[in-house]
Amino acid sequence: MICDLISKEAFDQKWTPEPFSGCWLWTRGITGGGYGTSCLNGNPIVAHRLSWIFYRGDIPAGMFVCHKCDIKLCVNPDHLFLGTQSDNMLDASRKKRLPRGKGELNGQSKLSWVKAQFIRSSKQTNTELARKFGVDRKTIRCVRNNTTWVAGGGK
After folding, report:
1. 155 found inside a domain
2. Which tens digit of pLDDT belongs to each residue from 27-67?
3. How many domains does the structure of the chain reveal?
4. Claim to verify: residue 69 and residue 108 sit in the same structural domain
5. Is residue 80 part of a domain?
6. Which terminus of the chain is less hemmed in, N or C, by CB atoms within 10 Å?
């Protein structure tokens, strides 16, 4: 991405209103995580933080710009609020956006109880197993150390 100095006027050309929700949907670059992205003073920045800066002012150090609407592409400053990481996680928990359940009950889990048992009994390296199951080496290490998929039920 080419990072150019962006003005509020240029910013306002990069979103479109969604008539039913009131969201302002970012129409340009998108991060791998699904958030709008742009640049300010030559530095990449997520679009909702940029919106806060243009419409509300500076963002205090350590603060997050969080979405009330939970729409990652929304840059409407009325749909944003400042909070700490803890505030953001509490908000996500209240809205039931965090993974629920452990083991196979977690819809984001790539492993199963059977795979965890296989990992524990395998003579393969963590790297080999990570490739085999499409997970990080740390995940394999945690399974082997009973940090995750704890022996005795895996749930």
Report:
1. no
2. 999 988 899 999 888 889 999 999 999 999 999 999 999 99
3. 2
4. no
5. yes
6. N
